[in-house]
Amino acid sequence: MAIDDAMGANSSEILRSSSDYGEGLLPIPAIDRYAGTGLMFWLWCGGNILLTTFVLGGYYAAALGAAGMIVVTFAGGLIGNLFPSMSGLRSARYGVDEYVGMRSTFGTFGAYVGIFMLVVINFGWVGILSSIAGKSGSAALHAYHFSNFHWYSIFALACGIILPVGMLYISPKTVFALVKYTVPLLILFAIVLLWKQLSHYGWHEISSIKANHSVSWQYAIEANIAYAVSWFPYMGAWNRFAKSERGAFWGAWLGLSFIAILFAIVGGIATLTTGSGDPSVWATKSGLGIPALAIIILSTLINNAMLLYCSAMGIKTAFPKANYHWVVGLVALPSILFIYLGTLQNNFSTILTVVGAFIAPYWGVALGDYFLLRRQRVDLVGLYQGEGGPYWFKKGFNPVAFAVWGLGVVLWLFLGGWTSYVNWLHIASGEKVFAYLTATGPVIVICALVYWLLGMLGVSTIAKSMPETTA
Amino acid sequence: MAQSGGGSTAGSGRSDLVHKSVIAPFVGHVEPGGEVPLATVLATVVFSLLVVFGTTAWWMLH
Question: What is the pTM of this model?
């Protein structure tokens, strides 16, 4: 009998190649995983090929100079991307979506808080990325003397909404097929852009541009780590396709880090040489109009498909009876609003603040729970249970996990609130401590350790969710 | 016993995401292997820091 939906058909067997494994909530069995280390590497490379990754390097290049920018980019990229690569291992092991797995930390309904953050952030992200594709597409056609038409809307809606939704509608596997062939090409374009900058200006000239110290290196490290951990909400949905945990970990860490470092350095050097933080200016000055447009269009396709799939699976976790095909279509619609509102540059700082303050401590608690407390063991059947199951905690919420999350949010706002535009969050003593610690990295580690300690001290709410053999 | 020594699986009910009888056959068939120990992650952190700051020190000295 086919397991044709995730709502409790009385099946007693595991079928191979069921579409439910990618489009439903059932765990994907080990025999049905099809993404090896290489494919996971290309997937996460594709995920990080974003205009924002270019912009990240430009964010602090003038402040630190070329050499300082490169060192900080390496340090922040390598360390920052370790956190999401680790958090995705729960889904890689159990084949479950991020928010099914998250129930073991925050509770059956507590995981919905993560879903809410994911879906709301995605509305903005998908809209902003679509608008970038729209602007680039219309600018390119304008440069080639095409007549005025609604090119912005056509490019934005086609690349950002219609095609990604169409791919997911067919199958999430289409994303893997796309990244396998396009990501190497996109990386080549970025390398050509870097080579053009270096050969035109020369390293000596680039490295002699004086740092203006407008922001500190700690601030640059913080930006890198906050940017990297913005992947937290997305890891599980895709890592459950991995053929091995090792492949999921190394594929994600190497893929995310490689692109974060390469693209941020390209963006940083381009900002130094052109004096502009606008990627369209770099592309024009380098004579790379069409390759740059290809990067933007293909990366928008890949990214929006990846983000929308995560939203769809999150919504399926909250509403298991919802039809996958309807969900992937409907979840993209609110983003259309953001295609016509705001710009990337205006929203970049706000995105990093929200990620640092709310996302980082939430997944910090989850890392402490999964790695330190549960030692990478959860109850698969329990993840799908409601009342009476091991992860029901108190009415579906784990109050201890939420308390530690709250502590993490307060701590982040103390340390990093001064980087936001909110005046009352500018705490002088927090800024002084930030100079030694930064904010996002320590908050993740502290949340993980505090939750672990509470679990080790035998707080009853947590202890009840532990297996009898180790409780 | 549930997957990997998990906790109680009693009390399946209406609030379940998926009925227990559907998930139970998956137990023991989902783990792909290739565990990444925490020690590997910590070693990666140390390695990354050494590479980054070692390179920086070398760069500054030359």
Answer: 0.90
